[in-house]
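hey so i finaly got around to running the thing on Ionic transporter y4hA from Bradyrhizobium hipponense. pasting the sequence first so u can double check i didnt mess up the copy paste, my clipboard has been acting weird all day
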Amino acid sequence: MSVHSPMPRSAWIFPALAVLLFMAVGATDYAFTLSLGGLVFATVLLVILFGTVFAAVHHAEVIAERVGEPYGTLVLTLSVTIIEVALITTIMLGAKPAPQLARDTVFAVVMIVCNGLVGLCIFIGGLRYREQGFQLSGANVYLSVLFALATITLIMPNYTTTTPGPAYSAVQLGFVDVVTLALYGVFLYTQTVLHKDYFVHERTDGEGAGAHLSGRIFWLSVALLLVSLLAVVLLAKKFSLVVDAVGAKIGAPPAFAGLLVAVLILLPEGVAAVSAARKNDLQKSINLALGSSLATIGLTIPAVGVATYAFDKELELGLNEQGIVLLALTFFLSMLTFGTGRTNVLFGLVHLVVFAVYVFMVFVP
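ok and heres what it spat out for the 3d tokens, dont ask me to read them lol
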């Protein structure tokens, strides 16, 4: 979506509809049930929620174009993380216990991003340009932090002795929250101050120049981004009721809710990443994809950890054996894919196959 064109109507209509829907639900004290009226409400809710998420990402892209890389990608990832934390904590703090939701969502984000999104970007770029380049040093920074954070949060809980896995004790969870925030903070300092050049790849096609936006458009996007994020947070409770009811009705596996939340929050960012790959800007695709994975673990886990501790809820983080195998395979494959600074269509296809295996195993474990 180009920021040079006039602001699309959907960029302000959906946030406005989301606020109006929340006000209408609050005024009528509507309670969701699986009836014909409930299905109509669920459809309207999902359409407005998806549209509002897309609007939020559009405004984040407008701001990103103005501030430039790598700050622009940071705006996008932080916006998506706020939405993710709101959805996860709302569902987890609901009446129905969901101690695995944070783990399932974080794992789904890692698998969608590192296999589905990365694979699709590399595959499309490989078909169109044969090979695409990126900053090897930046990819190594992303992967080293991602591997450490994912291992600490998704694997280590299975092997602690203070409490039986797959959960950390309160003290252990507090320590993990601190170290993950510290590591992510140092990564941000590296990305935005120390080594900005690691995350910007020189283009050879003359594209990628900074956008020239009027101050009015910029500040309007800032305001609408805040409204969009607030609207998603306000509707998160009703979304959680729809997820619980539909999941119970169709007999969906426990990991389905986490996968659905991950798809909702990553779809707009995924569209932006694929669009960048089509324009031969694989570096931006990598920044969006791997950056969102890091933000998910580095910010979502500490936020959810604090929420579960404050409201005395259970939080299970450790993956089962099947998930650990898929995560380890993703780590190994990512090292090979990002190990040379050049990609081709075969690397993308292999990632897509691993992602297909993950989705299949969610429904047929």
